[in-house]
């Protein structure tokens, strides 16, 4: 087993939170889980190409890994390595091989397409959805992807064929090129930067998995600096945290060979001995007589923060963060922090007095509400009580609309107030929008929809005409009939 980084021993961790031995909780404690849910839903219920967009370090790979882990039984997923693909025939041959169709290198492009069409139809007859995921799809020439067109469109009977998911830093250009070639409509899911509170929650989850249950051993100024430098991208943020811990632990180890949890105990012993000598000797000793090497070491080190259980974040924030992370980890990973936390949490590492507490401006940042996340999908709702107490709930146009018409779902959330605030910020009124209460996993789930359109194509055209900030939510068309049953009279 490779040697553990110095901060693992120094901070009393069971495992390296950023190493491969610890299950990374990234998706569980960020809005990326909603991205995974949206992907699963779109693949199951639409024929659109889905693009997941975000810069390097935004979490695309983590989303892909979680998508594979949470894959629905009805999805049959394959992936291709763009670096090994240089022609449409190679792409088709790779797909046929992964689907265990045993293609021959001598097969023509048309024959490979027919083989894949027949296989995709067979999978759908079995209730499965054939799905291709292409990481870095923007690096694949559009003429190579063009060879997929017959497979994506489903063949002679025009049934749904292969589903396509593309991950890219900026898929805008290839999306336009595919549209010009007549490919199906595309949905765009953008990975927004994490806010400072989201980064704190994420970091707390990592340390819980590493065995530290007492908070985050970094001060507020450092966290704010790392968040600013990473621009909210989780990859660079976690890399910055790891590097900071490594440098800090090595610096302190050079200044003292005594592990930090023992420093406090050593200082306490020295104090007790000093008091005993004072009372037994009956006179005040000279100050220099109380100094010994251990005391000099302690004096030379940075002073211990007043709150020994939480050096970098104040206690109220630590308790709130830890409780939030525990609940989400238990829901998403099936195990709480007690699975990995030590029986007795280690004392916190010494921190510099200056900046050890979160400054007021950071606390203000932490208290700000996070931006509205990418909409989380939900199954077709069963009839449920209507959302009430707000004009957006069950407007007249929704009740009177033809149940066969389509509407556009903009947003979904567990809290009704989040939907209402979003609608107010975007000037959505009961004349053009509706707040509908449905159910998701047995709990209330509120969705915001807008418009009534005679068919799916009209709804998709309306989505293309939405403002860019609304298009960034990856809105999607759905039937009004499914919502009217849940909207109430």
UniProtKB/TrEMBL annotation:
<feature type="compositionally biased region" description="Acidic residues">
    <location>
        <begin position="368"/>
        <end position="381"/>
    </location>
</feature>
<dbReference type="InterPro" id="IPR003593">
    <property type="entry name" value="AAA+_ATPase"/>
</dbReference>
<dbReference type="InterPro" id="IPR049945">
    <property type="entry name" value="AAA_22"/>
</dbReference>
<dbReference type="InterPro" id="IPR036680">
    <property type="entry name" value="SPOR-like_sf"/>
</dbReference>
<dbReference type="Pfam" id="PF13401">
    <property type="entry name" value="AAA_22"/>
</dbReference>
<dbReference type="GO" id="GO:0042834">
    <property type="term" value="F:peptidoglycan binding"/>
</dbReference>
<feature type="region of interest" description="Disordered">
    <location>
        <begin position="368"/>
        <end position="397"/>
    </location>
</feature>
<protein>
    <recommendedName>
        <fullName>SPOR domain-containing protein</fullName>
    </recommendedName>
</protein>
<dbReference type="GO" id="GO:0016887">
    <property type="term" value="F:ATP hydrolysis activity"/>
</dbReference>
<feature type="domain" description="SPOR">
    <location>
        <begin position="400"/>
        <end position="479"/>
    </location>
</feature>
<feature type="region of interest" description="Disordered">
    <location>
        <begin position="331"/>
        <end position="355"/>
    </location>
</feature>
<dbReference type="InterPro" id="IPR007730">
    <property type="entry name" value="SPOR-like_dom"/>
</dbReference>
<dbReference type="InterPro" id="IPR052026">
    <property type="entry name" value="ExeA_AAA_ATPase_DNA-bind"/>
</dbReference>
<dbReference type="InterPro" id="IPR027417">
    <property type="entry name" value="P-loop_NTPase"/>
</dbReference>
<dbReference type="Pfam" id="PF05036">
    <property type="entry name" value="SPOR"/>
</dbReference>
């Amino acid at each position: 087993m490779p040697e553990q980084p110095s901060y693992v021993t120094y901070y009393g961790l069971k495992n390296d939170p950023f190493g491969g031995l610890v299950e990374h909780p990234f998706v569980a404690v960020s809005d990326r889980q909603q991205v995974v849910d949206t992907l699963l839903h779109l693949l199951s219920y639409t024929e659109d190409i889905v693009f997941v967009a975000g810069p390097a370090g935004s979490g695309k790979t983590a989303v892909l890994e979680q998508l594979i882990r949470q894959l629905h039984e009805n999805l049959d997923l394959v992936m291709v390595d763009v670096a090994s693909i240089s022609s449409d025939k190679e792409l088709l041959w790779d797909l046929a091989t992964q689907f265990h169709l045993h293609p021959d290198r001598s097969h023509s492009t048309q024959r490979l397409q027919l083989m894949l069409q027949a296989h995709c139809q067979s999978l759908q007859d079995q209730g499965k959805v054939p799905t291709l995921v292409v990481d870095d799809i923007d690096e694949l020439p559009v003429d190579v992807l063009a060879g997929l067109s017959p497979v994506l469109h489903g063949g002679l009977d025009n049934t749904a064929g292969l589903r396509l998911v593309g991950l890219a830093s900026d898929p805008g250009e290839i999306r336009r090129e595919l549209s010009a070639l007549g490919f199906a409509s595309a949905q765009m899911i953008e990975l927004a930067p994490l806010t400072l509170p989201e980064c704190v929650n994420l970091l707390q989850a990592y340390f819980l998995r590493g065995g530290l249950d007492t908070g985050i051993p970094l001060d507020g100024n450092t966290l704010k600096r790392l968040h600013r430098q990473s621009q909210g991208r989780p990859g660079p943020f976690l890399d910055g945290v790891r590097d900071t811990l490594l440098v800090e632990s090595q610096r302190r180890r050079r200044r003292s060979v005594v592990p930090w949890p023992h420093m406090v105990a050593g200082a306490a012993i020295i104090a007790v001995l000093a008091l005993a000598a004072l009372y037994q000797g009956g006179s005040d000793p000279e100050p220099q007589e109380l100094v010994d090497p251990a005391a000099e070491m302690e004096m030379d080190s940075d002073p211990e923060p007043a709150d020994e259980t939480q050096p970098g974040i104040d206690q109220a924030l630590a308790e709130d963060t830890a409780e939030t992370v525990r609940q989400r980890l238990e829901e998403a990973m099936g195990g709480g922090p007690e699975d990995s936390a030590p029986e007795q949490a280690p004392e916190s590492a010494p921190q510099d007095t200056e900046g050890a507490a979160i400054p007021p401006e950071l606390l203000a940042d932490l208290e700000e509400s996070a931006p509205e996340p990418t909409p989380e999908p939900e199954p077709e709702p069963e009839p449920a009580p209507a959302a009430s107490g707000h004009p957006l709930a069950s407007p007249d146009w929704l009740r009177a609309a033809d149940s066969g018409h389509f509407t556009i779902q903009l947003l979904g959330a567990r809290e009704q107030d989040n939907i209402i605030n979003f609608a107010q910020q975007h000037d959505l009124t009961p004349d053009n929008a509706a707040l509908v209460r449905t159910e998701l996993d047995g709990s209330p789930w509120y969705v915001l929809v807008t418009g009534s359109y005679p068919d799916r194509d009209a709804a998709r055209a309306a989505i293309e005409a939405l403002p860019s900030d609304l298009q960034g939510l990856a809105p999607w068309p759905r039937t009004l009939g499914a919502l009217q049953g849940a909207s109430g009279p």
